[in-house]
Amino acid sequence: MNLDFKFEISNLKFRRCRLRDVTTVIAGLLILLLACHPGYASSGMALQIQTPDAELMMPPVSPPQFQKEGLPLSWEDSNLKDIIGFLERRAYKEALAYFREKEGTAKGLSFLDFIEIGDPGGQLKERAATGGVGQVGAVTSFLQDLNKMGQISAYMLYLIGHTYFSLEKYQAAETAFLTALVPMPDYIRVHESLGLLYMRLERYEDARKHLARAAGLGLHTAELYGALGYLHYQTGNFWSAASAFQKALMLKPDYEQWERGLLQALGRTYQHQETLTLVGNLLKEHPDDAGLWLFRAKAALQAGEKEKALSSLETAIRLGNDDRSNLEVCAILHMEMGSIERALVLLKNSFAEGMDFERIDQGMTWLEQAEEWDSLKQVLGSVREKWGDLDDLQRSRVLIREADISLHKEDLSTAGDALTKAISLDPSNADALISLADIHWKKGDSDRAEMLYQRAGAYGAYREKSMISMAQLAMDQDDFEGALRILRDVLKEFPDRTDLGRSIESLRQLMLLQSDG
User: Fold this and answer.
1) 55 and 256 in contact (C-beta within 8 Å)?
2) Model confidence pLDDT, tens digit, residues 108-131
């Protein structure tokens, strides 16, 4: 008499196992709750849709703000209108030439010279002033001349810094801005400009410090929050990036650059529903943007909405996205939805560009679990065409699939040959070891089966499965004492297997009955 049964553990379908009833008298006493090892399973990797890389634009260099948070010195005031005129026309070189002409330093280095060489001795910092009529107080021609030769206002340094910044002379711009902060450490616009400057130099921590200082001092503009969003995204602080882009959009709605920045940040923070809402709004304006459809597909998949993910992927493919990885994900989703023919077409198209073996292996796992043997055979045929691109470990895994097809046909000889080759390519392939052991067991070669089970048990993840298989093998040989010993060892090493308690007790009772008999 043979007992057939099937278990499901961790949502995996396990093979049918056969236990031979030792005697008719005790057949109903033994219920062995053992989970046989599964057929080869893939790594269980999650489906990942590839979206376009972030194409966030660096926040632009805005023109200087001419509202005087600082004041010019008296000698500067008469020339300020002309300097601002140059800047408004973006005539930056002319502005510097005009300033150099008008600053009127009597001897030695000019202010611009100090700025351009980085003010190594700190002399420029000593001459920086808040502004107004001069730090000595009285307004006399003599003191104005002294002021003219000796000081420069924070406000003028701010304008000069922006001029160098616009000319991409970043070192000089940094010197001018930092010098402006000496007399006016809370100069809001200088902190903002320094933050933007450091972002271009990819000195992100310095940029964050100055932009945050500007916000803390009361600057709450859409541009500032947009810059903070960009900065946080570049440094991997995606939650803060999302918050900053949201604040920027509150102050300046429908600005697409910030909407796309928010979309990227939301995707990195797994805010799936928020992402779906935002990408839906963007698609109303750009229905033919394949990248946006990919974002929609990714968010939908992460939210568990596989049908929406699949339809979005198909739309992206129709619009020209032929990313191999996305074709393979789309194929797997079609398999899960039962559209096998479409899945095979997509896999064939992906093979033309190469092959992501892990993802293809994931698809083959699904086909095998669904018992779509003909489709699995087609995929294996395509994989075989790429045999030269596979390493030995991958080839070993392919051979297991081919062995499983042979086992389905009950062709033990062909399956055994494939598994033997799989083990020669990868001696640590425990799945192949266990499957080959099963074949030898069925053929009655218990010694070879036991040896292979023991080899598989050397790999931690397979120890439990191999021990249980050896217990079943012992039962098949009427070695009840050996089976009992193995089951007790299993329970000792894997105390969570409380289901084995009943099997152990049934086996113990069986042994008592035999001894009494």
Assistant:
1) no
2) 578 888 898 888 888 888 888 887
